[in-house]
Design goal:
single chain; mainly alpha; Cytochrome Bc1 Complex, Chain D, domain 2; two-stranded antiparallel ribbon; disordered C terminus; binds heme C
C-alpha cells in the first residue's frame, strides 16, 4: 500500500516537473496567435464588420472627446495634437513605453491621463472609465492593422522579466497560466470571454 502511494506521489512529481518545464519555455514566434484566432466564428464576424462591432461606439465617443476642451487649460486634445489620423498613427502600437521622468513603463491609458493632468490641467480620468476607454479606443484605432512593437530600452528589461514571470505563473481557480492557454486550443467558455480589440 505504501509503495502504491509512493509511486503515485512520484508520478505526480514527474507530471508537475513536465508541466513546469513546459511553462518555463517561451512560446515560439511561429506559434504565437492573436486573441482573435481563439474567437468563435460569430464573434470574429462581429469584429470583421465595423457597423456590427459595439467597440466602434467607444471609438466614436473618443473622437468627440478628442475635440472637447477640458480642464483649467481649456484645451482639447485636438488643440495640441491636431488630426489624430496623422499625429496618433502608430502610437498605440508602441505602448507601453518607458516614461523617462517616471522611470517606469506607462500604458496608453496612463499616457492619456498624463496629458489630462499636465497639459489640460484636468483631473485624471478613472482607470477603465467610459471616457478613458473611449479616448484610448480612438487613439488605438489610428494604429489599426499596424504590427505591435515593444520598446527595447534596457530600463524596460526588469518590467519585461516580471511580466514574463506572471505570464508563465499558474494562478486563479483554474490554475491556468496564460502561456499554457496560449499553447492549447481554447474551450468554448474561454472563447466566449474574448474581448474586443481595436487594432
Ligand atoms: C497642451 C497640449 C496638449 C494637450 C491638450 C494634450 N496633449 Fe497629449 N501630448 C502633448 C505633449 C507635449 C506630448 C509629448 C509628451 C509630453 O511632453 O508630455 C503629448 C503626448 C501624447 C501622447 C503620446 C504620444 C507618443 O508618441 O507616445 C498621447 C497618446 C497623447 N499625448 C494623447 C493625448 C490625448 C488623448 C489628449 C486629450 C485628452 C491630449 N494628449 C492632450 C501635449 C498635449
Amino acid at each position: 500500500m505504501r509503495t502504491a502511494v509512493a509511486i503515485a506521489i512520484a508520478a505526480l512529481l514527474v507530471a508537475a516537473a513536465i508541466a513546469s518545464s513546459l511553462c518555463a519555455a517561451e512560446i515560439p514566434q511561429g506559434e504565437r496567435r492573436s486573441g482573435y484566432s481563439f474567437m468563435a466564428p460569430d464573434s470574429q464576424a462581429i469584429q470583421n464588420d465595423d457597423t456590427a462591432n459595439p467597440g466602434m461606439l467607444w471609438v466614436l465617443d473618443g473622437e468627440v472627446l478628442w475635440n472637447n476642451k477640458a480642464g483649467a487649460a481649456g484645451k482639447a486634445c485636438a488643440d495640441c495634437h491636431n488630426d489624430a489620423s496623422t499625429s496618433m498613427k502608430g502610437v498605440a502600437a508602441r505602448y507601453p513605453v518607458l516614461d523617462k521622468t517616471l522611470g517606469r513603463p506607462v500604458d496608453l491609458q496612463q499616457r492619456i491621463n498624463l496629458c489630462r493632468a499636465d497639459h489640460q490641467q484636468a483631473t485624471p480620468l478613472p482607470y477603465e472609465s467610459h471616457d478613458l476607454l473611449a479616448l484610448t479606443a480612438y487613439v488605438a484605432e489610428q494604429s489599426r492593422g499596424m504590427p505591435i512593437e515593444a520598446g527595447t530600452e534596457p530600463e524596460l528589461e526588469p518590467f519585461v522579466a516580471k511580466g514574463r514571470e506572471l505570464f508563465m505563473q499558474r494562478q486563479g481557480p483554474c490554475a491556468a497560466a496564460s502561456a499554457a492557454s496560449a499553447l492549447k486550443p481554447m474551450t468554448t467558455a474561454h472563447r466566449n470571454w474574448s474581448s474586443w480589440s481595436f487594432i
